[in-house]
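Exam revision sheet. Question 4 asks you to relate a sequence to its structure. Input first:
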Amino acid sequence: MKSSIKIILGSVLLLSGIPVTQAADRDFIYTDKSEATTVIDTRILEKCEGASLPNARCLPAASFLGPHGRLANFRDILWLLGTVGLDGHERVLVIGNNRTEKDFVAGLLYLAGQAKVEVLTKMPPPSALTDGGTGRSITREKIFQAPMRDQLLILRDELATLLKAGEPLALLDGRSEDEYWGERVRSIRGGHLPGASQLPINSLRRDLKTNTATLPSTPDPIAYAHNARQGIAYFTLLHAGAGVNARVFPGGWAAWAVSGNLPADNASYPDARSSTVKVESRQNSPQSNGFGLMIVGLAVGGLLTSLGFFMGKRRTA
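Answer key, structure tokens:
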């Protein structure tokens, strides 16, 4: 039987500022200590396999993402969890040195149905990393059997239908302020979902440290960010850290913006003229004009040389 892992990091909560006691579900929490027997290390594979906590399994955030950072379908995610020996009934401790990636993996585990998910608020010191972590198996070690918490997920088409029907929805946008207002565009278009309120993830983390966070009063808000990685991390902070019983739209603004027929507030579009101006200025620059004149000069010189050659042959004939 695996021995329990006891981790006590002293003032971790003071440093991290995550109020553990405010979790919406005691099966999904931030913690500074744990007796979990299963550890999921979300760092890159090289670091995890080099040194980690006893019994750790390596499961970097990138394992769940396909091309362009898109989230894999949940059927594949459940299969993937089986390759690190999870069947869904374990008490799991999630560790990592990147907050977004750690929270993303923890949120996915919870959504997938993992019985109890604890998120370590700070990476343990090197002295605690006594063993090398174990990577994924090629095949499943166990079949993940826990029922999904799919009531916490909302997909794009479902959300679009609810908005079109005029359903009263509380939407929370976790992106930065300039992205929310369409001043910074990382997708085909900028803006935010119709009626969404702004609660940036960085501001929420900061305000939770001082217990000054302004949280939504409406029940079951729907959280989203730019993409699945950031959106599910935002869901984790809301749910496990702020005590908000949130749902999540994992595709986020990136998935919403690509469909031009979906409504948006403060819609904006990338300014294509900036690249055109650069091309024109490059074409009209002194270097480009000089290069063009040089080509013309070489062409004229070649023509005159050829003409002289033929004229000389004609005189000698």
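Marking note for examiners. The chain has three domains: 12-150, 153-268, 282-316.
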